[in-house]
């Protein structure tokens, strides 16, 4: 049945391989670590009423005091900012039920310094801008012909053998700069920017590039006159611009959307925070996430790069590969691990969290996939259907690139 459905969607014209990219996939082309982004966000002071206010950093300090032995990151901070807005508006008597989060009836302010609406709004804007500016920095410096040729070549060598369905959690456009031909569903309109056409990406026979959580080129429409798509589009539907500065100029000064729980859930061009699944209801995100799930269902070939398995939403889909494809599966996971830290007991290795172990165990069809007493990269499942590269993306692409591509093609 699924083959028939796949044929209707144009999936059977050429072999397709699903790729899923986490933040770690961009580190070796200049991308920041989550700790780097968190530091930048914390160092950004809010210029409020003519004064420098350490609002974001104070929130981070309060979070870290609560977490004790762990540190919060920029996504935790953004979630707090959304929750502060939700509570603040919920406590107003005149607020309609639709915008009142139920928990607000049971909690009270314990520090009024955190509940200034204007300061919270400024902090959210500053946080998003700091992240986006840092993404743009390495995106602008991406050098596919020289310094980052290894990255460019890997995707193109794969593309010569099959079509990619690339699903990325990153906001950069380095993949787009690497592949000469691809579809993302956006079509240029006479306003000078691009509008999303679902059929364009569903029915394509080309490779796909899908930003599951946004892109620095996404923005809201700014029409020269009236919006002729006003009755077709949702208020939160996103468009695509030619440059980061054009896109960013549309980001702020809009009302934000609300989750089913009546909490604020800002679904913008860059999705962050801890309520991501509430922010995937509009184009292109709604279709993008459907396509990702469908790709995992219809293709037995999966490449995962630089993903730490921190998103429960996507983990539930990725963990289905063994069930869906059995011995036909071809799974490659590329990550970075310290050889000196290797141990046959998974609990000893700091890089291996519970959700990563769960995925590797399922992919390998083995309750104990790390039984080796010595460090090996790649680590190969006993049935030969799954591989784990522990050397990082650059070394894997340069030294094992064709082996990976041949394996995914088999």
TrEMBL record:
Source species, domain of life: Bacteria
InterPro entries: DHS-like_NAD/FAD-binding_dom
Pfam families according to UniProt: SIR2_2 (PF13289)
Entry protein name: Uncharacterized protein
Annotated organism of origin: Heliorestis convoluta
């Amino acid at each position: 049945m699924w083959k028939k459905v796949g044929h209707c969607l144009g999936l059977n014209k050429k072999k397709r391989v699903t790729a899923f990219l986490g933040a770690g996939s961009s580190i070796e082309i200049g991308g920041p670590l989550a700790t780097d982004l968190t530091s930048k966000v914390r160092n950004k002071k809010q210029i409020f009423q003519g004064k420098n206010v350490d609002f974001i950093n104070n929130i981070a300090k309060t979070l870290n005091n609560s977490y004790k032995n762990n540190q919060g990151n920029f996504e935790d901070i953004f979630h707090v900012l959304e929750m502060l807005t939700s509570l603040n508006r919920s406590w107003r008597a005149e607020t309609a039920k639709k915008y009142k989060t139920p928990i607000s009836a049971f909690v009270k302010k314990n520090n009024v310094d955190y509940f200034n609406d204007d300061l919270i709004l400024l902090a959210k804007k500053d946080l998003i801008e700091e992240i986006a500016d840092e993404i743009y920095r390495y995106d602008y410096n991406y050098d596919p012909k020289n310094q980052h040729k290894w990255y460019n070549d890997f995707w193109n060598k794969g593309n010569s053998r099959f079509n990619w369905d690339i699903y990325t959690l990153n906001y950069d456009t380095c993949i787009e700069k690497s592949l000469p031909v691809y579809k993302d569903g956006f079509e240029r309109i006479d306003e000078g920017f691009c509008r999303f056409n679902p059929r364009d990406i569903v029915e394509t026979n080309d490779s796909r590039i899908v930003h599951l959580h946004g892109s620095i080129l996404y923005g809201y429409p700014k029409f020269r006159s009236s919006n002729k798509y006003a009755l077709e589009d949702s208020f939160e539907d996103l468009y695509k611009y030619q440059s980061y500065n054009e896109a960013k100029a549309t980001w702020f000064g809009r009302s934000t959307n609300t989750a089913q729980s009546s909490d604020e859930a800002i679904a913008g061009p860059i999705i962050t925070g801890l309520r991501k699944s509430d922010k995937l209801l509009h184009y292109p995100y709604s279709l993008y996430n459907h396509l990702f799930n469908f790709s995992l269902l219809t293709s037995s070939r999966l490449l995962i790069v630089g993903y730490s398995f921190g998103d429960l939403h996507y983990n539930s889909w990725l963990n289905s590969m063994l069930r869906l494809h059995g011995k036909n599966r071809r799974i490659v996971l590329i990550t970075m691990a310290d050889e000196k830290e290797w141990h046959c007991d998974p609990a000893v290795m700091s890089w291996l969290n519970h959700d990563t172990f769960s995925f590797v165990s399922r992919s390998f069809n083995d309750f104990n996939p790390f039984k080796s007493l010595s460090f090996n990269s790649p680590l190969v499942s006993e049935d030969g259907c799954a591989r784990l590269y522990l050397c990082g993306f650059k070394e894997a692409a340069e030294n094992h690139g064709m082996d990976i591509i041949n394996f995914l093609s088999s």
